[in-house]
Amino acid sequence: MRISQEYFDELKGQKITAYTLINNNGMEVTSLDFGCIITKLVVPDRDGVLENVVLGFDTIDEYVTRSPYFGAIVGRFAGRIKNAEFTLNNEIYQLVQNDNSNHLHGGLKGFDKVMWETNVVENEDSASLVFSYLSMDGEEGYPGNLLMKVTYTLNNDNELIISYNGKSDQDTLLNMTNHTYFNLSGHVKRNIFNHQLILKSNTFLELDEKYIPTGKILEVNGTPFDFQIGRKIVDGVNSNHPQNILVGNGYDHPFLLNENNNNEILVMDSESGRKLTIETDQPAVVLYTSNQLPDSFSIRGIQSEKYLGLCLETQGLPDSIHHPHFPSSILKKEEVYCSVTKYKFSVY
Ligand code: GLA
């Protein structure tokens, strides 16, 4: 295992560092101390060719001005909270509105836009980046001083393991994810239409026109939302299902996972032979097929457009605080939030 670090850029006089973990097979993960942003993930194809499989930029200005959360850690709350407000212990909390009148991905300055203190840890068969951040009481409207730790570990089995650890001095809400846009073709050679996805999920959440869960849990059976035996992403692009059309022809939906830590999410690209297996302890995964990716910029020299990346955001359910039948995302005072998601890369 090797770890390297280099100057990435500067933001308002603050130096931003890029850390790279490299395993014995040549797999590499590069992350910034700003937003814990994964800028590059280099993995082999079936011929052993090492290429980057995530969307990212080379300057901090691009991340700050136009990034739709490329590679970033999202918190305190992944997804939307309706009307940017919630009641907890009889107190009303007003959050920052950054998605019409709603709250999205932790607000205007969420965990994707703050500096994280970074430590590197090297072991024989793995290496880790340990990021820490103290989110103050009232930040973006949330209660409680929250101490967060996010750890990225790369091992010699070509696994990237993301673990989240949080503790607050007051009851609060917490729902963490990583917002990487995968494109297994390598260096974004093709869009994600032919990525094959298998999901162990038989239900998903219905969304309203503002992408807020209506509260209805729908069955996937007989719809383009049924990924149980596998289907290509393009099915949801061409679909007439009102939920696919609503989100801009594709997917932007939370799927409830039937199983955890048992190969529940699988993505395959037949041309490169790359396969990504995701295992998590979280109740859901948001499948977002970058239907809203604007065509007004370039991504490392490639013209940006819809469907260039596939997000698989393992998390709790969006807006759960307004739906008592959803799994709760309340973190009790002094209790420990602990969650792990594992991304394993292989070929077939
Ligand atoms: C999430 C949301 C999408 C969009 C992207 C970022 O996946 O559900 O609607 O906001 O993040 O652009």
How does this structure look, described?
The protein is mainly beta. The chain has a single domain (2-347), classed as Distorted Sandwich (Beta-galactosidase, Chain A, domain 5), CATH 2.70.98.10. 5% of the residues lie in helices and 44% in strands. It contains three helices and 30 strands. It has helices at residues 60-66, 234-238, 242-246; strands spanning 2-11, 14-22, 28-32, 38-44, 50-52, 73-74, 80-81, 85-88, 91-94, 103-104, 117-122, 126-135, 146-155, 159-168, 172-173, 177-178, 181-182, 196-199, 203-207, 213-219, 231-232, 252-256, 265-269, 274-280, 284-288, 298-299, 302-303, 310-315, 330-331, 336-347. The strands form eight sheets. It has a nine-stranded antiparallel β-sheet. It has a six-stranded antiparallel β-sheet with strand order 17-28-25-22-19-20. The two termini are 25 Å apart. Bound molecules: alpha-D-galactopyranose.
